[in-house]
Specification:
Elements: E1 8-15, E2 26-35, H1 36-43, E3 51-55, E4 61-65, H2 66-69, E5 75-80, E6 83-84
Antiparallel strand pairs: 1-2, 2-5, 3-4, 5-6
Length: 88
């Protein structure tokens, strides 16, 4: 499982992807997770890849640059503020 892997904790401020100017959908939390680069390296990510594709269980998809995926602060998280991620 993800939680069995070596993990890190980091405090971050996040903005909701659907935030509009002045909507205030920001929050701070201490996240615990595994650096995405570790997962990509273990999976044998293709040399020369330029984007990472994310697919959520709810059908949401997004892509972002491999450079961001390989940043040590980009995490695949499993805890927020010391507890499991809320379903919501």
């Amino acid at each position: 499982t993800l939680a069995a892997r070596p993990s890190v904790a980091q405090e971050s401020t996040l903005m909701c992807i659907s935030n509009r100017i002045g909507a205030g959908l920001f929050s701070n939390a201490v996240w615990r997770g595994v650096p995405l680069r570790d997962l990509l390296e273990d999976a044998g990510a293709r040399p020369g890849a330029v984007e990472v594709l994310l697919r959520g269980a709810d059908g949401y998809t997004d892509t972002f640059a491999v450079e961001k995926a390989m940043d040590p602060t980009t995490l695949v998280v499993f805890e927020m503020n010391g507890g499991p991620l809320p379903d919501r």
